[in-house]
């Protein structure tokens, strides 16, 4: 187009509308309106500042008056495309600003209609964004890539980069020095030549799966060194994702573990993120008066609040602000209204369907000729996903904090928190603190579990907890210690009579029948009472005294209470007799193992069996593990007994099919013994059981003391080739820390978390979090206590791999297990009675 008719045209009238001009003038992005003759019909303050001229000098003129002709031709050509097609055009160009600096601009041009003398007149609206800093960031990104290469070549680990197909595109200098392979030879899939032939297929398949799942990968394999020897390495890789979430490749680091370097490798890929340029369709803009009536609104704001312009016209802000947010928003608005200063906040906009959307809101005021606010401009941005993620994270943190201190079944404080609170209560009054402690066991609870099942037992425990809470004052402390054991700490007591009265009250309250789904259950309780400071000045002393009184109450017929007296020795004599008998149980051949299968959820195949210790006394018959295991731990007999369990379990397992492993529980006392590693090695050697078939299960209590020493023992056990499982995961308060400190092969989730499935949202949330954690760490997951098809379906849906419980089998004697596995009866196996379904601790579960 010729420029003859475009140069120095007569000034044209500016677009009318004082309010619109003020609104647009307050927007920080330059805005220019041009007519078909390319004349400037409107420029806001930012546009005038960009061109370095006053608005009066610019109106009615065109690009040809201010930029070189060739550049102006390009601007005008884009204008004509918008007029002819009616479609938006976005361009990028360079312009020298008023300060003489060359700026890089991104301009969005859109066809609009404005009223004119002859009716509606088409014009081009140009919204300009300064992207100079963005371009500089891209240059910095290229420089950072060069720095990445320099850093990689000087890194103390081998580093590689691969594209989306899995083909390698870079290896650092340490790779070539370690392997003796050139980088050119390693590119693509040439690096596989350095991997041991026995490891290649596993590595290729695993890496292909990680690429497909867009997941991190971790492999251990043997790598050939420059001298021809093979060395074990750990290879950790992470996917590289584009902003749209697609995989653009992988980056990995290889660590030589033959020299046992304990080094954490992390390669943080820094890719510059381009700032999103928001146009009219990206952010919401509205104009309202001081009475909260809308004067102007764009389409994006309508989309956010779910209302049309017509529906918003005259509607006060309160009508579409979440009622929980409006009072605070209104207070902030009133405070800034007095000063006219802009402000920002986050709030929820309420939609007609009742849903709400979190937005970041920026508010500025338009001032009248006296400098007083007369209206507001509100700019909103959708941040709903971020706020939802933050709320989910906070909810998870609150749930984990609650789990650490509370019993999942009853919601009462657990043993650890109970101890903390009693310690605190005792410290308030020093040695003169007056405090009563009640320890109680339920009478007949085991019979409820055996006859009605564990779900009924769990429901009963919740009802007991509720009834106990009704007996308490607000300052009293009540906790579930585990199983059917509860404890109550009565603070600020006036004397013995007050505590005795409460003990009788508890006995009477729990003696009342419980209505459980139409079953009228009567269980009762036995209570042991101790008082501070008479019976003890520390929590341990008080608990010991209350336990002694509890044993006395049980010995006197249950359903009653006993107050600790120093002369209570009857129960101790009985325990001593049991302790003496236990010392010769191995020699007399009275100990035996029962087994409960661990089932692969996806296939139904038995993966392993857990060994459960039983004592068949020659006179007393079967003695509960809950009775003799604590005695064994107190006397140290748990060490030789544990060694017998290890060897006997391995001996039995050696006769099973090779794909079935054996799981053995380790007592904390046994774990702390210096000969544990040697005992495990001796059992494997004596029975010739493949180490990977032996799973050693430990509870969190094993790791509570001497954390570094315990982790060292776990490492030694791992070196034997056995598997290490954390049992009862989630019931303590440090499980997550231990999983981070030591790579467990398996996590066994305690049955408390699945009792209420599939109806408990809280249990499902915990299981989902554990499954996600285990998946990310590549740790196998097992759930205990599966008793119904509905529970099995729930844990299967959450991705758990293995299950154990009465749904599959109760604990079985060795000969019965062989029959279950379809094997001939072993000549060396001892016959045993029906396996007791009750669970106890450690080997006695």
Structural features:
845 residues, alpha+beta, eight-stranded mixed barrel, five-stranded antiparallel β-sheet, 37% helix, disordered N terminus, disordered C terminus
SSE layout:
Blueprint: H1 18-25, E1 31-34, E2 40-43, H2 45-51, H3 55-58, H4 69-85, E3 89-96, E4 102-116, E5 119-130, H5 132-153, E6 158-163, E7 168-171, H6 173-179, H7 183-186, H8 197-213, E8 217-224, E9 230-241, E10 247-256, E11 284-289, E12 294-297, H9 299-305, H10 309-312, H11 326-337, E13 343-350, E14 356-367, E15 373-382, H12 384-405, H13 415-428, E16 435-442, H14 445-452, H15 454-471, E17 477-482, E18 485-491, H16 496-511, E19 514-516, E20 519-521, E21 525-532, H17 539-555, E22 561-563, H18 570-583, E23 591-600, E24 606-617, E25 621-623, H19 625-635, H20 638-653, E26 661-665, H21 668-672, H22 676-687, E27 694-698, H23 707-719, E28 723-729, H24 735-741, E29 746-749, H25 761-777, E30 780-783, H26 789-797, E31 802-803, E32 812-813, H27 814-820
Parallel strand pairs: 21-22, 24-26, 26-27, 27-28, 28-29, 29-30, 30-31
Antiparallel strand pairs: 1-2, 1-5, 3-4, 4-5, 6-7, 6-10, 8-9, 9-10, 11-12, 11-15, 13-14, 14-15, 16-18, 16-21, 17-18, 19-20, 23-24, 23-31, 23-32, 24-25
Helix pairs in contact: 14-15, 15-16, 18-19, 20-22
